[in-house]
Design goal:
The protein has about 270 residues and is α/β, with parallel strands linked by helices. The protein has helices at about 1-20, 40-55, 65-75, 90-95, 115, 125-130, 145-150, 165-175, 185-190, 195-200, 220-235, 240-250, 255-265; strands at about 25-30, 55-65, 80-85, 95-105, 110, 120-125, 135-140, 155-160, 180-185, 200-205, 210-220. The protein is about 45% helix and about 25% strand. The strands form two sheets. A six-stranded mixed beta sheet has the order 6-10-5-9-7-8. The protein has a five-stranded mixed beta sheet with strand order 2-1-3-11-4. Helix 12 (about 240-250) runs antiparallel to helix 13.
Length: about 270
């Protein structure tokens, strides 16, 4: 009996230690996605990662701007984020999932209607730069195929790096300090008024493929490695297929979403 009591006593003492065994992990999200709508894609992604990681980590979320998000992922803290574009430089600094957590419709060029008048539906950024058009970009992100071009024509490129960089980019354009910005349509709409947006036009970029991938990414930490492993395992499950299908069909027109899911099915082998 005394032995039994002793075992129970030791078990009770160990409970706090077991409760504290989980490491802390912060999921970072961009501040402009922080709204009160319960069914936004951002909140659905956060709920998904809670589900995948909660047995191994104490998960918290934190809203931050894009520049700080990139800086935090490059540091020693156990942090992760999602829907992040993979580049060669970022692969040296972050850990990435094997499969993208989402696909985006590509960035476009945006400018005043008179600036883009007469241009075809798909245009070359290289040709626009060679024709002395000025561009606005964010220094904290990668434009992938366009990065080398912007570096070569840096005297024609305004590179923004501030807490409100997305908003500032739009303001540079609307105040006609630059001719063109490269951005996602939903971001441009988020930071401009309806009246300002109505004055703009857009074109597809010929240097880009149809879609761009966003991945789950973590800092190069023990926690980050474990989180990436768990996400990689989950992403090939039927449950993940259903999640991805819901996200993409809710976010895009049916034809675009169908083409995106075809990529998941054929290239990444995610099926029901």
């Amino acid at each position: 009996m005394n032995i039994l009591k002793c075992c129970i006593f030791i078990s009770l003492l160990s409970l706090p230690l077991l409760a504290e065994a989980h490491s802390s992990l912060t999921i970072l999200s961009r501040a402009y996605n922080d709204d009160t709508t319960e069914r936004t894609a951002e909140k659905r992604f956060y709920a998904l990662f809670q589900q995948i990681l909660r047995d191994e980590f104490n998960i918290s979320t934190e809203w931050t701007n894009h520049a700080r998000l990139i800086k935090r992922l490059s540091g020693p803290q156990p942090v992760c984020s999602y829907n992040l574009i993979k580049t060669k430089q970022r692969e040296k600094l972050f850990l990435f999932s094997e499969i993208p957590t989402t696909m985006f419709v590509q960035r476009k060029i945006f400018g005043y209607k008179e600036t883009l008048q007469g241009l075809p539906e798909k245009v070359s950024v290289s040709k626009l730069l060679s024709n002395n058009k000025t561009f606005g970009i964010l220094s904290s992100t990668s434009y992938q195929q366009l990065d080398t071009m912007f570096a070569d024509y840096r005297h024609q490129v305004a590179s923004i790096n501030s807490a409100d960089s997305f908003a500032q980019l739009g303001q540079l354009l609307t105040h006609k300090r630059i001719d063109i910005i490269v951005d996602y349509e939903y971001t441009v709409k988020s930071f401009l008024s309806d009246e300002q947006y109505a004055q703009l036009d857009s074109r597809a970029i010929s240097e880009y493929p149809e879609f761009i991938n966003g991945y789950f990414a973590c800092s190069q930490t023990v926690e980050g490695e474990k989180a990436i492993t768990l996400v990689n395992q989950y992403m090939r499950t039927p449950a993940m297929y259903e999640f991805l299908k819901g996200i993409h069909y809710d976010g895009f027109d049916a034809d675009t979403a169908k083409r995106m899911m075809h990529v998941y099915e054929t290239k990444y082998k995610i099926t029901l």
